[in-house]
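Quick start: what a row looks like.
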Amino acid sequence: MAQAVRFDEYGDADVLNVVEVPDVEPGPGQVAVTVVAAGINPGEGKIRGGALHDRWPANFPSGQGSDFAGRIAAVGAGVGGVAVGDEVLGFTNDRASQATRVVVPADQVTPKPAAVPWEVAGALFVAGTTAFAAVRAVDAGPGDTVGVSGAAGGVGYLVVQLLRARGARAIGIAGPANQEWLREKGFDAVEYGDGLAERLRAAAPGGLDAFIDTHGVGYVELAIELGVKPDRIDTIADFAAVAKYGVKAEGNGAADTIDVLAELADLVAAGTLEVPIAATYPLTEVRAAYRDLERGHTRGKIVLLP
């Protein structure tokens, strides 16, 4: 029997349980993976709480999780290019990665580079593809100056690094401790809160060319106020602002391909992209992991280690 996270009703982290489930064998075109690491993401908590029921309803009992990394445990008929024991990272669209075993189509896994740690590989898909899509959406390139809210978070810190890789200048918005951390990493940073518009104008006298909002709560309005054109603003958190201002809302769903994931893994292996790991928890402590995440101000990713 495998173990998997399940919840039977909407609620806070207390509705999460780890239960025994049958070992599912892969069908044609599928692989089974023994999960070594599985990332957790804010959106999963919102789905579990019922806040996104209209967009992404849960069917009970529901599993959780998209990101994973592990070893191939079994291969279905017609699958080539992978073998039992291969180390891979990948994703599932079935809310099923927070488990000891997951079955997915073979084209949803890619080889894990040896230089990529397990916990990083297991937390790369959602945050990585979200950051990739957001940077691509604002068409950032050499000479651009881009404001980034939530720049020390799981997605935001990947955004600022991908902007730098494209030759753009990122100005990260973060709290006092995190803005100092961003500066130590070589990024420009300003503190959020009252007076932010003035601090951004001082940091970018020539103005902002684009803005990526990973936090919500007024940052799209701020970008508009600062003169950024709507087609160069992307938010992954403020969907009301999308309808109001006509800005973009490209995130994970705009770049959720195995090719993008493989490219991100190669960037990590090459040292171009760093994925900080804020904490790791055993699968059995999934409630504590989400409580940690939901406190906010997490620097990097929280990962389950089944």
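That is the whole record. The chain has a mean pLDDT of 95. The longest strand covers residues 30-39.
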